[in-house]
Specification:
The structure holds 2 protein chains of 2 kinds. By secondary structure, chain A is α+β, with helices and mostly antiparallel strands. Chain A has a single domain, classed as Histidine kinase-like ATPase, C-terminal domain (Heat Shock Protein 90). Chain A has 6 helices and 6 strands, in the order βαβααββαααββ. Chain A has helices at residues 12-20, 43-54, 59-79, 108-111, 121-125, 133-140, and strands at 2-7, 27-33, 83-89, 93-100, 143-148, 155-161. Chain A has a 6-stranded antiparallel beta sheet, covered by helices on one side. In chain A, a hairpin with a 3-residue loop joins β3 and β4 (93-100). Chain B is globular, with a radius of gyration of 13 Å. Chain B has a single domain (3-115), classed as 3-Layer(aba) Sandwich (Udp-n-acetylmuramoylalanyl-d-glutamate--2,6- Diaminopimelate Ligase, Chain: A, domain 1), CATH 3.40.1390.20. In chain B, strands 1-5-4-3-2 form a 5-stranded mixed beta sheet, sandwiched between helices. In chain B, 43% of the residues lie in helices and 16% in strands. The chains are: A alpha+beta, B alpha/beta. The A-B interface holds A 38-39, 41-42, 45-46, 49, 59-60, 62-63, 66-67, 70-71, 126-128, 130-133, 135-136, 139 and B 32-36, 38-39, 43, 49, 51, 53-56, 58-59, 61-64.
Chain lengths: 165, 116
């Protein structure tokens, strides 16, 4: 099993506290993501964005949440055997977990390198599979945690705070 | 820069009727790689691309790009246009190719900077 963690240094304290405590979210959203469903992929991320917009989250933050979430949603659609997204909304941040049923990442560090991708031709023809998905998630999130292994499920989880530091 | 001025500069034809289009445009981004667009474009920019499937509308909507401009008279399917209307994304097609469109819009935006 391998693991990857990125923490925005500006939120180090808050993120460490989050991982220690068991907080009760104000709202939980759950979505099933089907294998290779390129027609409906993105709907979960759009719903998350709309929900946060209604709660008054600012536009630049909404854009970061939407991009991170969409990239991770596309990853489940394009690369996995299906999975689900759990979005937990807290007063100061959103926590989104992307869980799939495998086949898993052999080397997460490699997957983080911009340009590295295992996407097939069909995915690339649509303009995906440029190897920029995970780097984009890292760029737009305050916390990124990936747990995976070959022939295993993958968990990608992110945290984004509503107030930018 | 008003969108209407940009549309005129590229002989653009609007494919999505009934969307409010008296909007200001801050810039443009040209790329056919969806992740590149999400990673490097900015809110409020026009997106110039030859890609014209449903996911393009999702990207524009999520990345808050209000306008997609297709070169070479490319026309997306009716389903894509319907999706764009439901997401409030303006679709425009232009007879020029990408390089020419970029040049025209670049000049227009830079000229307006000089006027300020």
């Amino acid at each position: 099993m391998s693991e990857y963690t990125y923490i925005n240094p500006k939120f180090e304290k808050e993120i460490n506290e989050f991982s220690k405590k068991t907080l009760v979210p104000e709202l939980t959203l759950n979505y099933d993501i089907k294998v290779r469903d390129f027609v409906n992929t993105g709907n979960a991320s759009a719903d998350i964005k709309l929900t946060l917009k209604r709660l008054g989250v600012s536009s630049p933050v909404l854009r970061r949440v939407a991009i991170s979430s969409y990239e991770a949603e596309i990853n489940i659609t394009a690369h996995s055997k299906g999975g689900n997204i759990i979005c937990n909304v807290y007063p100061e941040f959103v926590h989104i977990q992307f869980k799939d049923k495998g086949p898993g990442l052999k080397d997460i560090e490699q997957a983080m390198i911009p340009g590295w991708s295992t996407a097939d031709d069909a995915v690339r023809e649509m303009g995906f599979g440029a190897g920029l998905g995970l780097p984009n998630i890292k760029k737009n999130s305050d916390y990124l945690h990936i747990v995976s292994a070959e022939n295993s499920p993958t968990l990608v989880e992110i945290l984004i705070f509503y107030i930018e530091k | 820069m008003k969108l209407q001025k940009i549309i005129e500069s590229v002989d653009g034809k609007i494919l999505t009727e009934n969307i409010f289009r008296d909007i200001d445009i801050s810039g443009a981004y040209s790329s056919d790689l969806l992740s590149d667009v999400m990673g490097n474009s900015h809110q409020g920019e026009i997106w110039i691309t030859i890609m014209r499937h449903l996911n393009v509308i999702a990207v524009a909507s999520l990345a808050e790009m209000p306008v997609i401009l297709f070169p070479k008279n490319f026309n997306p399917d009716e389903k894509v246009i319907e999706k764009a209307i439901s997401e409030n994304i303006i679709l425009i097609t232009s007879p020029y190719q990408t390089f020419e469109i970029c040049g025209k819009i670049y000049n227009l935006l830079n000229k307006s900077d000089e006027m300020v």
